[in-house]
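From the shared-data thread, chain only:
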Amino acid sequence: MQEQVSKKGIWKVIGASSLGTLIEWYDFFIFGSLSIVISTKFFPSDNPTAAFLSTLATFAAGFVVRPFGALFFGRLGDLIGRKYTFMVTLMLMGGATFLIGCIPSYDSIGFLAPFLVLILRLLQGLALGGEYGGAATYVAEHAPKGERGYWTSWIQTTATFGLFISLVVILLTKFFLTDAQFDNWGWRVPFLLSILMVYVSYLIRKNMDESPEFKKAKAEGKTSTNPLKESFGNKYNLKFVLLALFGAAMGQGVVWYTGQFYSMSYMKTVMFLDSDQADMILGIALLFGTPFFVVFGKLSDKVGRKWVMLTGMLLAVLTYRPIYQAMYDIADTSKKQELVEKNTTITAPSEGDDQHETITTTKYYFDGTYTKTEQQKKIAPNNEIQTEDAHLSSKFSVFLHGSNYVKLIALIFIQIIYITLVYGPIAAFLVEIFPVKIRYTSMSLPYHIGNGIFGGLLPAVSTYLATNAKTSGDPTFYLEGLWYPIIISAVCFVIGALYINKNMVAKDLD
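Structure, as tokens:
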């Protein structure tokens, strides 16, 4: 009977911790999921490429600041407790996300718009830097002995579910609004909705108890008086911090963001896949892949954390380029047989004072793929012949069908499996190698440097590498951005294989 009560109690802990963490990840990912739209709202529109890169840089800024959040909130968590600390991070994240949805566009307030977005993005990063370590530590300290990998893996699913829910909310918002409404104001809805979800999570979390291990340490007077000094000022513990970063978290971070963010950006900006199709394909792959976090978390309880994580990194190193080449080929219409007799061109004049016409050309291919090119051109006075400088905008999109659609889901799903291998066991791995009194601080920093710095910089660095290769005339420029996650994962694999051992645990620093 006691075992049943214990299981019931841990499920309550998992539910309360996971819901709040899921919402924080949702808040954090909305920005990345809408990065293409945001680039047109908060940055100058005269150079779309520069605007998109600026958006990615702002997105990355939220990751870069996460280690500072880990230090600040990790210290609080080791001083006053896990529960109250990640209550604060939840409210900070929710407020910042809501306010991003309220900021006027660049056309309305100029450079103040990207400045305010950057400030709020930094606050999001600080909040997330304190949230994950608290939630993972809280769950691990409630978990039965020998089952930490299994129970903490449920927390690992929240990041992926957060991205999944952000995609679902965006797709539903687009479904209920016209394209013009979504572009005008509908993109703000996912940001504004977060305040309601944060409120619900707050009501649930406020009734949680402190973790038993922290309460025991506090009752015995064994909590830390200076978590930062004991975590990083002690050479023995610092060695474990560095090994956790360079032997596990660094590789985990780049694998995670390659599979869930670079893949999405790649589909939309390199393959030119229709945005809704790309979101749906990623969402389906995430839905099927997410249960494997728990599978590999539980496996790590039986065989150890090390080789489960390192297997994911090694597979990524060996297969990323073939996978992304296959993705590119699926949408490469230059190699497909065109069905000329089905091609159509439709010209639609505008209504109202904004005089322009939209020319939509649809091309069909033998394998079911079709493309749409939408061009907007000004209507010259008295319907005179239009010239090149009358061109307003152009949009090219690829639409997949049948087996190609399924193949692309499978290729994204494979990358999600790599993520579950490296990410499923890592919370238990990080919690177990540090003593209770400095656990929140010590585990949070390597995790958020690995994810915030190495992982968070991936979209911007990889996009820069690919853009630079394209400019230099490299025919495979679309694969060059992958060198960043491949090299980082390879280095992390070597360090982890050589220096991480199964019984690696930092001693209690009394």
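Residues 257 and 455 are 6 Å apart (CA to CA).
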